[in-house]
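Sanity check record (used in CI):
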Amino acid sequence: MEEIREQVKDEDFRKNPLLCVMDGSLYLWNLFKIIFGDIENKVLILDIIHVSEYIRIIAHIRCGEGSEDAKQYVYEKLILILQGKISSYIMELQTEMLNGKWNESQLKKFRKAITYFRNHRDYMKYDEYLAKGYPIGSGVVESACSHVVKDRMELSGARWGIRGAESVLKLRSVVKSRHWDEYWEFYTSNARDNKFFPDEYNTLNVQEKMCA
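Expected output for ISKra4 family transposase:
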């Protein structure tokens, strides 16, 4: 977080807020508030995927794991929460927990879900987030981390140093962003002008090619 704070230190967040999408670890939320405490205009958002996981816990208790009724329950409650009705859902869970015939293990899961939603209610204003076009999940970023980084760096038998790994990942990011042609034109143009390398180095052998 400190590295990210350094990267955005010159950004002006008075008009557009700093957005933060994270999982439910309260330690992370508190740390974020400390490190980014000087930025007043910020919005903290609980990743909707983690919300769905807790709804599934309740769905499995009520309807049975993997059942069609459980899937329908998750769908309906997600819609409810996306409409900004998290308080209504918490009250519903409390009523169901008190009035149902649950064993101790099931009651423990009810209490866990209710506590989770209570603790994160301020970060679950999904109706407002969606209306403003804010992201509510980190799935795209996590998928990119897996595809761009993990798939390349964790090949069988691969060993990396910091500099080599960073160099490969920078190039891989360019390729996966479909900017390779523009990047290569920029790179070769600057290499020809010796903007990247001392005179004694020329990894592209540009001078020799131009003479030829």
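The CA atoms of residues 36 and 165 lie 29 Å apart. If this sentence no longer matches the regenerated tokens, the check is flagged for review.
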